[in-house]
Amino acid sequence: MASPTTAWSIAPEPFDSPVAAALWRAYYTEVSDRWYLLHEGRPTDPDELEREIAANTGDRLAPPDGVLLVARYAGEPAGTAGVRLLAPATAELKRVYLRAEARGKGGGALLVTAAEDRARRLGARRIVLDTRADLVEARALYARLGYEESEPHNDDPYADHWFTKTLVRSAAPTGG
Predict the structure, then answer these.
(1) How far is CA 97 from CA 3, 8, 65, in A?
(2) How is 16-69 classified by DSSP, letter by letter?
(3) What is the overall mean pLDDT for the chain?
(4) Distance (Å, rounded) from C-alpha 11 to C-alpha 89?
(5) At what angle do helices 46-55 and 18-40 cross, to 10 degrees?
(6) What are 90-147's pLDDT values in tens digits?
(7) Residues 18, 22, 28, 33: what is their CA dihedral angle, to the nearest 10 degrees?
(8) Which residues form the N-acetyltransferase domain (predicted)?
(9) φ and ψ at residue 124, rounded to 5 degrees
């Protein structure tokens, strides 16, 4: 029997693939409904949901300055994390998401770590992110992974917390 961590695979995915689109829809529906239920006692208006999904295609996560990673659990698409360069040495972590049925199996940390590795490959020495106050699980994950709260790096109207982390370079392999 495979351990929970070996059941995971993470690989780049085109931001406009059907898998990426389905995960973006699931992500946006969950975080939007969460906000509206908390603040207005109702789910997201379906028309608003469609407008926002269409307006945020994820094209900023396309190569050469970005990447979208898709996590699969036991072969099934389970989550995403995106990275894009904001400046030559600074990357931004975006769209970190795991489907509810995949949570609690170690995938969040694996996904963020894979995104950090991709940020390093893009030349970043620092990674930043923003998140909302109601996404307490995400904030706990980031803190556990060494992210520290920082001053805002953007003016996103939905962001309540900003984080940063220095990306330590992996040691170069030794030997011949």
Answers:
(1) 21, 14, 21
(2) TSHHHHHHHHHHHHHHHHHHHHHHHSSPPPHHHHHHHHHH---GGG-TTTEEEE
(3) 91
(4) 23
(5) 130
(6) 999 999 999 999 999 999 999 999 999 999 999 999 999 999 998 999 999 999 999 9
(7) 150
(8) 21-168
(9) -75, 145
pTM reported for the whole predicted model: 0.89
Evaluate whether 102 touches 79 at the Cβ level (below 8 Å).
yes
Q: Which residue has the higher pLDDT, 92 or 2?
A: 92
Give the fold, CATH level 3, of 8-166. Aminopeptidase (3.40.630)
Round to whole Å and give the CA distance between 138 and 96: 8
How far is the C-alpha of 154 from the C-alpha of 121, rounded, in Å?
Answer: 23
Q: Which one-letter amino acid corresponds to residue 114?
A: A
For range 30-42, the mean pLDDT: 92
Query: Cα angle at 127 between 125 and 104, to 5 degrees?
Result: 130
Q: What is the phi/psi pair of residue 5, to 5°? A: -75, -30
- Residue that has been written with the tokens 């769209």 in this structure: 95
Axis-axis angle for helices 107-121, 136-144 (nearest 10): 60
Close Cβ partners of 86 (under 8 Å, ≥ 6 residues apart): 92, 128, 153
**Phi/psi of residue 105, nearest 5 degrees:** -120, 15
